[in-house]
Amino acid sequence: MSISFASRPRLVVCVLFAGLLTVALLSIGCAGGNPYPAGSYERGVFFADQGKDIEAVGAFESFVRHSPTDSLAADAQYRKALSYMKMKEYPLAAVEFQILRKDYPTSSLVGDALFEEGKAYLFQVGRVERDLTGAYEARLHFLNFSQQYPASEHMDEVVGYMQEISDLMVRKRLGQIKVYDQLKRYKSIAVVLDDVMKEESGSSLIPEVMWRRGVVAERLDDPDTAADMYEKLIQQFPDSEFRDQAARRLAKLNETDEPDSDS
Fold it and tell me: What is the chain's alpha carbon radius of gyration, rounded to the nearest angstrom?
């Protein structure tokens, strides 16, 4: 069973891991040709600018630990989290963004940290449609962000990420109906597709869902629903790759409905 990023055990493990990593990094000392003294904010910035993310994490950690009330402490905490993001250590990054929001609630970086934390949850999924726990976590996180910061400069990105999450969910469901199709359980397919259209209306894959729903309606001898799906697809998504197929299916349905000329 997957454990949410927000769960306490995982946070504890992440923090402990980060602490052990920091101790190891600090033992390196002045390696790397950094001109700034250990424990300084500038030391972390130098490493980050050089693309030495592991060293940057250690340097920023040292600065925050020794100068937690410094005016640059929140910035250092933020940069530390970003360094983890660059290393694709997304669970650790999420924890560090959480720490910033908790320890520096008045910082101007709180909104950015909330946004980046959502990205950390989403990127953890790795675009692999197996365990979508991170995607669910990211969706809730971005919804929270959009409510708190509706005028944020990040809102366009949030909308894009929300659609990406929705697409992940839809692909997962479309994969599930393949089994139902093999078993000829068309009613089950119809239920799944109806749920998808209701729950994931923002997905870019809705045209495909509507197309599939029309086809399965025909298999269930439900021409009215099939025609409704095809008509909506044609009207709402005229540029869809499924538009022409839907038009042909709809034309055949209309031909079938035409009364016999001899009657």
Answer: 26
More confident residue, 32 or 240: 240
Q: Which of 187, 131, 188, 139 is nearest to 161 (CA)?
A: 139
Closest by Cα among 229, 221, 228, 225 to 186 = 221
Distance CA 58, CA 105 (A): 23
Distance, CA of 75 to CA of 59 (rounded, Å):
13
Q: Find out whether 56 and 79 touch, Cβ atoms under 8 Å.
A: yes
Q: Could you tell me if 131 and 154 are in contact, meaning their C-beta atoms sit under 8 angstroms apart?
A: no
pLDDT at 157 over 80: yes
Residue 3 has pLDDT above 80, yes or no: no
pLDDT for the residue 90: 93
Q: Is 111 left (phi over 0), alpha (psi -120 to 50) or beta?
A: alpha
Break the chain into its structural domains and give their ranges: 173-257
Task: Check whether 249 has a pLDDT greater than 70.
Answer: yes
Q: Which residue has the higher pLDDT, 22 or 91?
A: 91
User: Taking a C-beta distance cutoff of 8 angstroms, is the pair 63, 76 a contact?
Assistant: yes
CATH class of the domain at 173-257: mainly alpha
Integer Cα distance of 56 and 161 in angstroms: 28
Q: How far apart are the first and last CA of the chain?
A: 63
User: Rounded to an integer, what distance in angstroms lies between the CA atom of residue 86 and that of residue 53?
Assistant: 7
The predicted-structure confidence for 99-145, as pLDDT tens digits, reads as follows: 999 999 999 999 999 999 999 999 987 644 567 788 889 999 999 99
CA–CA gap between residue 74 and residue 231 (Å, rounded): 54
